[in-house]
Amino acid sequence: MEDLTARRIVVVTGASSGIGLAAAVHLACRGDQVVLVGRDPARLQAAGDQVRDASGERPELFRADFAVLDDVRGLAQRLRAAYDRIDALANNAGAIVLRPVTTVDGFELSMQANHLAPFLLSTLLRDRVGRLVGTASGAHRSGVLDPDDLNATLPGYRPMRAYGTSKQANILFTAEAARRWPGTPAYCFHPGVVRTRFGADSRLVALAMRVLPIRSPRKGAETLVWLADQPEARLVNGGYYADRRPRRPLPKAADAQLAARLWAASAKAVGVEA
């Protein structure tokens, strides 16, 4: 019988700053056991201190660089060793990459960090995770996803096209996960334009910060926290949300055949069964 008094365990990737850190603070303050995943050890320690100061309890910290798939595999092993269950996995880590970069695994960096790495982590933890929550974006409108070539954005590289393609992949992955893993509900959301260090070196992002309505990280994290907690019956499995309401993504992020092709290509890319 399920222990209804047990604290919920929520793993948040990209938790060193911004939306991830704001979500971790909120979750911890309401009594959840939060697990922070980040790339930079110093920033991860500082984030842990902030969560401790706000909630009175220090969270567990796990370092992993999503630009290295072996780091993701190691992270999954360490999380499996530490927790018999993970009530929610918040796939929040992400990056806007300003110039063409190919990872050690051979993939365009934003596609790997924003899609392939969370795809791999989710797959390796599938039997432990109660639900998936992914940070997507309205930037999927810039996506040009081609499952036959996950590096298609490298030639003539444009940062927002590459980023938008990875966000298109996030939404497609969420819907396909809901179809393939009906016992593990999956949701994603658009957080709005949030004032964080994310993309801080990009002139385009800096311009967006001046001309678009800007949100605080806490405001941007509200839908993540809400999706991590709402009863399944109140949510649309595989759904894309904004401001705690289901929204319809553009057709290129709602194409079931494209989602199935992306899943097969992603599984091949990271070396797991489709």
Give the SSE map.
Layout: E1 9-13, H1 18-29, E2 33-38, H2 41-55, E3 60-63, H3 69-82, E4 88-91, H4 109-124, E5 132-135, H5 159-180, E6 186-190, H6 203-211, H7 217-229, E7 240-242, E8 245-247, H8 256-270
Parallel strand pairs: 1-2, 1-4, 2-3, 4-5, 5-6, 6-7
Antiparallel strand pairs: 7-8
Share of residues in helices = 40-55%
Mean pLDDT metric: 93
Largest sheet strand order: 3-2-1-4-5-6-7-8
Q: State the helix count.
A: 8
Shape: globular
Distance between the termini: 32 Å
Q: Structural class of the helices, strands and pairings?
A: alpha/beta
Uncertain stretches: 1-5
Largest sheet: 8 strands, mixed
| Strand portion | 5-15%
What is the element string, with H for helices and E for strands? EHEHEHEHEHEHHEEH
Instruction: Please give the oligomerization state of what you see.
Output: single chain
How many individual β-strands? 8
CA radius of gyration: 17 Å
How would you characterize this protein structure?
The chain has 274 residues and is α/β, with parallel strands linked by helices. The protein has helices at 18-29, 41-55, 69-82, 109-124, 159-180, 203-211, 217-229, 256-270, and strands at 9-13, 33-38, 60-63, 88-91, 132-135, 186-190, 240-242, 245-247. An 8-stranded mixed sheet has the order 3-2-1-4-5-6-7-8, with helices on both faces. β2 (33-38), α2 (41-55) and β3 (60-63) form a beta-alpha-beta unit. α1 (18-29) packs parallel to α2, α3 packs parallel to α4 (109-124) and α4 packs across α8. The longest helix is centred in the middle third of the chain and has 22 residues, at 159-180. The chain is globular, with a radius of gyration of 17 Å.
